[in-house]
Specification:
Elements: H1 3-14, H2 22-28, E1 35-38, H3 49-54, E2 59-63, E3 68-72, E4 77-81, E5 101-108, E6 121-125, E7 132-136, E8 139-145, E9 152-156, E10 162-164, E11 169-176, E12 179-184, H4 187-193, H5 198-202
Parallel strand pairs: 5-11
Antiparallel strand pairs: 1-2, 2-3, 3-4, 5-8, 6-9, 7-8, 9-10, 11-12
Amino acid sequence: MEQREIIDEAIRFSYPNIYSNLKELQVDYSNFKPEVRYWGSWSWQVKNGFLEKLFGLTRYQVRMPEEIVMVSVDGKAQFSRSDTDCIGDSGCPFTPPDNPEQGVVGTVQYGGPNYEVVNDFSVEWRGRDRGSVFKSGHCFSAYINSPKNKALVVSPKGADATTIRKGYGFYLVAITSDSYARMRIPKATFEQSQLCNIEARKSWPNVGGWAWKR
C-alpha cells in the first residue's frame, strides 16, 4: 500500500466523520506531519518494506496528533493506543490544532440498576482558565479555547467526580456515577447541541448504550 493510503485510513479511524484524509486534517493541524512505521520497527520511516516484512513486521503504526493507530498490511485500521514513545510516565504530548478548541457535550446519570438522571451536578475545567459551561436538566456543555490541554471535571451530588480525559476537538459523553463513555463529534454537532436542544439530542449517536437517557 502507498504510505498516503495508510495515513488516510488512520485519520478516518481517529476522526470519524470529521476528516477523511491528510489534506483535510492539515486544514486544522497545519504543522502536523504523521509518521508511519512497522509494528516493532526501530524507525519511524518505512524505508525497506521487504526486509521488515521478512522479519515479521506486518502491521503499521501511524502517529496521529493524540494517539497511535494500528493499521493492518491490507490497509484496515484496527485499534489505537496511547503514544508512549517519549521519556516519562505521561507519554508524548498531544499535538494541538492551530485553533486549540475543546468542547464537551453530554449527560449525567447515576449508576445501575436504575441509571437515574442527575440534575444536581457541577461542571468545571481544571486549572485557572474557566472556559464556559451550560447546564439544562441532566444535560451539559462546556467549551474552552486554550493552548494548554484541559481536563473537564463533572461532579454529581452524592457521587464521585468524573474527570473526562483530555483531548482537543469536540466530544459527546455519557456519564454515570461509576464510568463514562465518549466519542469524537464534528464541531457543527457540538454547536447544535451546545444549549442542550432536545431535537439536537435526539440525533446524537448512541454513545451511552442501552441505559443512556439523552
